[in-house]
C-alpha cells in the first residue's frame, strides 16, 4: 500500500498568514494526488485534484503543487473559514489512501 | 444540485450485520463510480471501497481491512448505493460516507455520513 505522510500534523496560524502543508508519498504517485478540507461534523470537501487543479468553486487562495512523491497545499492568506483539517489522498493504485491529516488552528 | 444521503447506521453487536444505503440525486448516478469512505471517532479518513459503473461490469475494489466482510452494490434504477457489512468488529465503528467519483477519479461530492457503532 502507498503511505502518505503529512507535515505538520498540527499547525497554529493567524488570519492573513501564508500556510504550506506537505504530503510525502512512499512511492511515486505521479500527479494522482488530491487535497480535501474537513470541518468538524462535516463531510470532506475536495479542494485540489490532479496535484494542482483547483476544484470548481474553491477560492483561488488555495493552490497545490508537486509530482512524484512530494506535494504541497498552499493557502496564500488564511481566512477565518479556513481553520479545519486537511487531508491529502492518492489514487495511483488501490487501496486508495489518505494522509493522517493536518489540523489547522487559529493562533 | 448533487445530493447524497446515507441511511441505515446504528448500534450493532460485534459479529452482527448492517446494511447502509446512499440515495443519490441531482446527477446521472449510473454514469459514475461510487465510493464508501469511513472515519472512526476522532480519527482520519479511511477509504473502504469502490464500485464501478455498468460499462465496467460493476466491478469492485475493497480495503484489506474490510475485504471478505463488506460488499458494495448499487441499483441504478433506484439511484442507490449500498454497503452490506457482515462480521462487524468494534474497529468498524465509524461515520460512513458515500461519495461520488468524478471523471478525474476523485471524490467530488460527499454525503453527510451515517454513524455505525459496533459494541456489546
How would you describe this structure to a colleague?
The complex is a heterodimer of chains A (107) and B (120). By secondary structure, chain A is an all-beta fold. Chain A is built from no helices and eleven strands. Chain A has strands at residues 4-7, 10-13, 19-25, 33-38, 45-49, 53-54, 62-67, 70-75, 85-90, 97-98, 102-106. In chain A, strand 4 (33-38) and strand 5 form a beta hairpin. Chain B has 120 residues and is mainly β. In chain B, the strands form two sheets. In chain B, strands 2, 4, 5, 6, 9, 10 and 11 form a seven-stranded mixed sheet that branches. A four-stranded antiparallel sheet of chain B has the order 1-3-8-7, with no helix packed on it. The model of chain B has no long low-confidence stretch (mean pLDDT 97). The A-B interface holds A 1, 32, 34, 36, 38, 42-46, 49-50, 53, 55, 87, 89, 91, 94-101 and B 35, 37, 44-47, 50, 61-64, 97, 102, 104-108, 110-113.
Strand segment count of chain B = 11
- Termini separation of chain B: 40 Å
Helical fraction of chain A equals under 10%
Rounded mean pLDDT score of chain B = 97
Question: Biggest interface pair, residues each?
Answer: A-B, 25 and 22 residues
Oligomeric description of these chains: heterodimer
For the sheet with most strands of chain A, the description reads: 7 strands, mixed
Amino acid at each position: 500500500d502507498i503511505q502518505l505522510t503529512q507535515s505538520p500534523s498540527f499547525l497554529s496560524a493567524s488570519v492573513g498568514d501564508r500556510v504550506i502543508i506537505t504530503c510525502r508519498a512512499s512511492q511515486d504517485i505521479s500527479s494522482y494526488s488530491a487535497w480535501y478540507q474537513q470541518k468538524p461534523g462535516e463531510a470532506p470537501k475536495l479542494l485540489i485534484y490532479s496535484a494542482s487543479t483547483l476544484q470548481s468553486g474553491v477560492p483561488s487562495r488555495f493552490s497545490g503543487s508537486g509530482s512524484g512523491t512530494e506535494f504541497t497545499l498552499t493557502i496564500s492568506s488564511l481566512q477565518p473559514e479556513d481553520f479545519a483539517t486537511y487531508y491529502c489522498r492518492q489514487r495511483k493504485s488501490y487501496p486508495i489512501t489518505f494522509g493522517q491529516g493536518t489540523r489547522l488552528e487559529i493562533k | 444540485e448533487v445530493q447524497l444521503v446515507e441511511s441505515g447506521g446504528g448500534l450493532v453487536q460485534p459479529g452482527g450485520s448492517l446494511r447502509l444505503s446512499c440515495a443519490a440525486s441531482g446527477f446521472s448516478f449510473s454514469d459514475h463510480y461510487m465510493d464508501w469512505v469511513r472515519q472512526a471517532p476522532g480519527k482520519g479518513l479511511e477509504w473502504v471501497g469502490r464500485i464501478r459503473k455498468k460499462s465496467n461490469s460493476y466491478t469492485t475494489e475493497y480495503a484489506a481491512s474490510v475485504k471478505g466482510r463488506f460488499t458494495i452494490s448499487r441499483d441504478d434504477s433506484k439511484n442507490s448505493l449500498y454497503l452490506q457489512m457482515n462480521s462487524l468488529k468494534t474497529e468498524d465503528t465509524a461515520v460512513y460516507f458515500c461519495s461520488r467519483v468524478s471523471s478525474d477519479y476523485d471524490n467530488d461530492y460527499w454525503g453527510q455520513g451515517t454513524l455505525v457503532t459496533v459494541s456489546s
